[in-house]
Design brief:
With 438 residues, the chain is of the alpha+beta class. It has helices at residues 4-9, 11-20, 26-66, 70-106, 157-163, 169-175, 186-204, 218-224, 249-253, 311-328, 375-380, 405-415, 429-432; strands at residues 126-130, 167-168, 182-183, 208-210, 215-217, 236-237, 242-244, 260-262, 268-277, 296-306, 333-337, 349-357, 362-371, 383-385, 392-394, 396-404, 422-423, 436-437. The model has no long low-confidence stretch (mean pLDDT 95).
């Protein structure tokens, strides 16, 4: 969440940022935070004054009793008693103000960086790079026309999965429900090959592999911003108050909750393969068919904890890593800089990677790579100690998919279908053990 320091010292910039994110009633909400914080500070100041007076008055009681001035001592006892009662009320007022501030701050999204473009919907997202054409500053999703040419009709991945017995969607419905596919034979092998390929590439790039739990407590969900914002999209085990993770970002980033790192340890670079679970409430239609939108899926996540001075460089390195994976998979891709209105609640800047589906003739998101600035770190109390002056400051947190498997598999099947079968990209052959699915 945003810090009170940022809100109080850079109020106008915060309001402009919230307006770029199309957060309703930005100024009113920030004014409310500042007003409640003023009450908190006034209560704290009066409380400090009372406690100091309490201490001074209490110190006189023993002396007066020794001098036989019992009546004066009793009068001071009464004054101290009254001060204690006032202090109790001031403490309650301060605590109530702190709780109210925290509730308000949890409702306020992160503010975007200056380079984040204006816009309310995905149509305003800027296409900053593609292996299909050179991009200009005017290229947006809304005016993009550089889709790959597909000369002949292509089968969609759900038909290919059935033709080659790779994925059984009906069996998944029988066992669990829609959105829980069963991978079979070479479909399962391809899934496992991609997992190992992505993990090996992350290890080569210096990431330490983590195998975290796939259920987390509410404190972890709060720490990374899933709670209280997205509880409706998470599967909740109510008896134990555990949540199934929507992404490995949640457990991996929470490793550093309530931790003070030394600056020499940064940047921390972790990766993790997990199953991910999302309710996807309200999703329907052609966009959810096949592997397009699942309730359970596999994903490799990369997470960084860094200093404010270096986090933008870390972000660039993460973007280059994800782009390198797509190049090795030989897929048509484009990179989008999300506009303010299409950014997530917690991100300060986010780039999406999309691959082109030749059969569906549309772009499929396969990765989001975000820098959260101090927003998550403030909730997590994830901090570091500077080497120069030993000052303790908030870290920056970053994460990205590298990569999410379902739509990658969909694109691989659709874009590599030939008369002989489905061709496997060269980089994957050592992992699959076969060059073609037929």
């Amino acid at each position: 969440m945003l810090t009170l320091k940022l809100i109080s010292e850079e109020t106008d910039r915060v309001i402009r940022g919230l307006e770029k994110k199309h957060f309703e009633n930005a100024r009113q909400t920030i004014d409310q935070v500042l007003a409640v914080d003023k009450k908190r500070r006034e209560a704290q100041q009066q409380l400090d004054k009372n406690l100091n007076e309490q201490k001074q008055q209490s110190g006189q009681i023993g002396r007066l009793m020794k001098e036989g001035k019992r009546d004066e001592a009793e009068n001071i006892k009464a004054i101290v008693s009254e001060l204690k009662e006032q202090s109790k009320k001031l403490e309650e007022a301060k605590t109530q103000a702190e709780q109210e501030i925290n509730t308000l701050l949890c409702q306020i999204p992160n503010i975007p960086y200056d380079e984040v473009p204006e816009g309310k919907t995905a149509e305003s997202n800027r296409v900053v790079k593609s292996n299909q054409k050179e991009c200009t500053a005017d290229d947006t999703v809304g005016n993009w026309t550089a889709n790959p040419e597909v000369p002949e009709a292509k089968l969609p991945h759900w038909d290919l999965a059935k033709k080659y017995n790779l994925i059984d969607f009906d069996l998944g419905v029988k066992i669990t429900g829609a959105g829980f596919p069963v991978y079979v034979g070479k479909g399962a092998q391809l899934q496992r090959a991609l997992i190992n390929f992505f993990l090996d590439e992350a290890r080569k790039a210096g990431y330490t592999e983590i195998m975290p739990p796939t259920v987390v407590n509410a404190a972890s969900g709060y720490g990374t911003g899933q709670l209280p914002d997205k509880e409706g999209q998470m599967y909740h085990a109510e008896i134990d108050d555990f949540y199934l993770i929507p992404t490995a970002e949640v457990p991996v980033t929470n490793i550093y909750r309530d931790v003070i790192l030394d600056e020499s340890q940064l940047p921390v670079k972790n990766c993790a393969y997990t199953q991910c679970f999302r309710r996807e409430a309200g999703s329907y239609g052609k966009d959810v068919r096949g592997l397009n939108r699942l309730h359970e899926f596999s994903k490799i996540e990369i997470v960084r904890i860094d200093t404010p001075e270096h986090s933008r460089e870390s972000h660039k390195e993460m973007l280059a890593h994800v782009e390198g994976l797509l190049k090795k998979l030989e897929l048509p891709y484009r990179i989008l800089l999300l506009c303010g209105g299409d950014q997530s609640f917690t991100s300060a800047i986010c780039y999406d990677f999309e691959v082109f589906s030749e059969a569906q003739k549309r772009w499929l998101e396969v990765s989001s790579v975000s820098n959260f600035d101090t927003y998550q770190a403030n909730r997590l109390k994830c901090r570091y100690r500077r080497q120069d002056n030993k000052k303790i400051e908030l870290c920056h947190t970053l994460n990205g998919s590298a990569l999410a498997l379902p739509r990658i598999i969909a694109a691989l099947l659709e874009n590599n279908q030939t008369e002989q079968g489905i061709r496997i990209p060269r980089a994957l052959v050592p992992y699959t053990g076969f060059e073609i699915i037929n």
